[in-house]
Every structure is written in C-alpha cells, then in structure tokens.
Design goal:
The protein is built from 22 helices and two strands. With about 450 residues, the chain is mainly alpha-helical. The longest helix is centred in the first third of the chain and has 36 residues. The relative contact order is 0.15.
Length: about 450
C-alpha cells in the first residue's frame, strides 16, 4: 500500500498498487467461489437427495420441505449482514472475510458427515437446518466484504471490471458444485449416490477452505477503510445511521437484487435439477447429463458476468442493468418451453440463454452497490441490501415454483412468476440514478450522502 501526496503537502490516504489490486481480486474470487460452492451443493443436494435422506417420513411433502430448508438460510442472511456490516464498518473488511469463510466451511463439512433420518431420527433434519442457518449467516456477511475489497481497491474507471471479480464467485461456485456433483453421479450412480456419493462434495470443502483462508490472509485491508481508520472516523453505530438516513435506498437496492436472485435460483437453488430428474415428474431425465448441462451454463454465466462488469465501466451501471433485464426476460420466457422438450441439448440452451441475462444483472452489482452508499456505512449498506434482496428474491423461489406447478399443473405459472420478479428489478433500477465513478473515499461523504433515489434530496 502506497500513499499519494496532495499539492498542499497533505496525504489523502493509502492507494493500492497494481500488484495489490491483482492480489485482492484473486483473493476475493477464490474466497467467494469457495463460499458459493459450499452454499450451492446444499441446494443441489436439497433437490436430489435430502428429501429422501432427511425428510422421507413426510412422503409427498418431503421435497417441499427440503426446498424450504434452502430458503430458511436466507432468513438469517440479514442477521449475518447486520453483524458483518457493524464489524466491517468498525474493524475492517478483511476480518469479516476471514471469519465468514471459516464459518461456511465448517458448516458444510459437518453436513457431509451428518447421519440421516434413518439413523438418528428427527435429530437429523433438525441438525441439518441448524447447519444451514450457519451457512446463511456466513453468506449474509461474506458478499459485502468481498465486493468492497475489490471495488475500493479499484481505479475509478475500472470498478465494474474489478467488482465483477467476486461476482464470478457465483457462476464459479455453481460450476464447481455442479461439476463435482456430476462426477460423483458417475462414480457412485443410483443408490450409491443416495447412500454416500452426495457426501463427498461436502467433505471436499475442508480442502477448499484451507486454500481460501491462505489466499485471503495475504491481502491488504481496503484503502477506503484504512483511511477511515487513520482518521479515526469509523462509524460508531453504522446500522442505526444507515436506517435513519437511507431506509428507502436500502429497500430499492434490495429490489434490484431480488429481480436477479429469484431467476438465478432456478438453477442455483436446485429447482431445474429436481424438476428435470424427478422420476415421478414429466421429464425423468438422467441425473448426470442434467448436472453437466447446469455446469455448462455456469460457464456462460461466468463469461457474461465479466463482460457486464467491463461494459458497465463504459456505458454506466444503470444502462448495463437495463440491458440485462431485457436479456433476462427473454431467457425467462424461453426457459421452460425448451426444458420441457426433454432434450438435454435444448435444456442446456435454455440455461445458457438465461445466464446471459443473469450475468448482465449481476456483473455490475458490486460497483453499483458500492457507489450507492457513503464510505462510513458502506459495508452495512451493501450487505443489508443484498441480504434483504436475497430473501425477497431467491429465498423461497424453488419452493414457490414447486408449489405453483403443483397447484396449476403447468410451468407457465412459474414463467410468469419469474417474469414478474424481473420486472420488479427493472422498475427498481429505473428509480436509481447512475453514480458510476463517484469518489468512494471519506473526503467525499457530502457528495455520497446525496440520495441516488430519484425524488429524494440530500439526507
């Protein structure tokens, strides 16, 4: 970390070097990939295994309850976001990133050795839910720290690209999780997968967590927080300040993410995997090819996320988002008509098309959120907005989709649900002003305090 000297001889604060910036982006990508790998293998297992292994006595309702446990973790994301936001704004981004990584890894590894209902009875699903709650708390605290480390280290004209780094943790986590699950479906097919094959991806988390912890330990603290710390200007009660002055902004920002998250959880939440492979369902496809199709779509999501971050540095975050909502809506209307053909190639095409829109409504999010909130309460602002958006969007999307198909007998109802959520995100984006390139440091808090919500003045 170096410092620049202003013309009057003062030192405005630490500035990240090029090598440090690269190291930070690499560390945030690795860390968020590990976190989301852990989070997604639970969702995949919920769609493929947990209904039989932990909720079998509930019969036909077992899959609904299994998907409900995916959503339960989202209810605890705000709790994790509140804690992480407070700690991150007072003690730094790096501390939070280390703690959340270890929490997520331990919970995931313990799920991998958890006995089933057949072995320990009702204690099995209870412990499973408790471990999922720990995952939710960890996920709620992870994202804000990772994106701020990347964006606050970035040059002002490359925040979208740098911020897309930790955003790629979602498609990379999806790629890794679905790929490992697909490999295990080959190594341990049929009953062997249900008996023990699903556990291996959970236990692999131990190795990933060691790698992620080592990489993150090497990075420098965010230069924005370092400057706040040098001036002793860390917010004393950041969450209270956030809601006293920026409640409307938090709600609108949350709705932006909800529009992306509800659609994304059709795959990351395990719904498409369960719908297409359910032996009692209309398609009854083999598990392995479906998992490989999801793995392939993670690549298109990864690429579109990076491209969207880069594009947002050139045409602005808001314009990039608006383009993304249009692409996402097209993907939503194509999804089930292609999936319902029962053809694996068309199923992959449906997911690939959908993920292009998802990438363009996710890639700019890190920079977009960071530029919305003042420096002293930024960690709290981005974390809590993200967590609330996750509840409103993806928390129960797989369960809602399952219930809609059960009630209507058609996936058309799910299409309209996803289209509605996409429009929510679009409208929320239209309400916000573009603040691409706004200074992020504590010297510019007055400028940052001006609300980006249209119709609101300085708060």
């Amino acid at each position: 970390m170096s410092t620049n000297t202003a013309p009057n001889g003062t030192t405005p604060g630490p500035v990240a070097t090029t090598a440090e910036r690269r190291r930070v982006v690499f560390a945030t990508v690795i860390g968020t990939t590990v976190e989301w790998y852990d989070f997604f293998i639970y969702a995949f297992a919920a769609g493929l295994v947990f209904a039989q292994a932990f909720f079998a006595p509930l019969g036909s309702n077992s899959i609904l309850l299994s998907f409900a446990t995916v959503g339960v973790s989202f209810l605890f994301r705000p709790f994790g976001a509140f804690i992480a936001g407070h700690l991150g704004d007072k003690y730094g981004r790096k501390l939070v990133l280390m703690v959340t990584l270890v929490m997520m890894g331990l919970a995931t590894s313990l799920i991998g050795i958890l006995p089933t209902y057949e072995t320990i009875g009702v204690a099995a699903p209870i412990i499973l839910v408790l471990l999922r709650i720990v995952q939710g708390i960890s996920a709620g605290g992870e994202w804000g720290g990772a994106v701020l480390m990347a964006v606050e280290h970035a040059p002002s004209n490359k925040r979208g690209l740098f911020g897309a780094g930790p955003q790629t943790g979602v498609p990379l986590g999806l790629l890794l999780a679905s790929g490992v699950m697909a490999v295990m479906a080959m190594i341990a097919p049929g009953d062997a997968f249900l008996a023990w094959g699903w556990r291996v991806p959970f236990l692999l988390s131990v190795v990933l967590i060691v790698v992620g912890h080592y990489v993150r330990r090497k990075v420098e603290e965010s230069p924005v927080f370092a400057e706040l710390s040098e001036r002793r200007e860390e917010a004393q009660m950041p969450i209270l300040r956030l809601f006293r002055k920026h409640t409307v902004l938090v709600v609108v920002a949350a709705l932006v993410f909800a529009g992306n998250n509800a659609v994304g959880y059709m795959t990351t939440g395990g719904y498409i995997q369960n719908y297409s492979t359910n032996p009692d369902g209309p398609l009854a496809l083999d598990r392995g090819p479906v998992l490989w199709a999801v793995t392939g779509s993670a690549v298109t999501w990864l690429l579109s996320t990076i491209v969207a971050g880069w594009v947002s540095d050139r045409i602005g975050r808001r314009t990039t988002y608006l383009l993304g909502w249009v692409l996402q809506l097209a993907g939503v209307f194509a999804l089930f008509p292609l999936v319902n053909t029962g053809n694996i190639g068309l199923l992959f095409s449906a997911l690939a098309l959908l993920t292009v829109g998802l990438g363009f409504t996710y890639g700019p999010q890190a920079a977009f959120y960071a530029e919305l909130f003042p420096a002293s309460i930024r960690f709290s602002g981005v974390s809590i907005s993200y967590a609330i958006g996750a509840i409103a969007g993806g928390a129960f999307a797989p369960m809602i989709a399952t219930a809609l198909v059960s009630a209507t007998g058609t996936t058309t109802s799910v299409t309209w649900y996803l289209a509605g959520m996409t429009l929510v995100g679009l409208l929320a984006t239209l309400v916000l002003r573009d603040r691409s390139g706004i200074p992020l440091g504590p010297d510019h808090e007055d400028e940052q305090q001006v609300s980006p919500v249209r119709g609101l003045a300085k708060v």
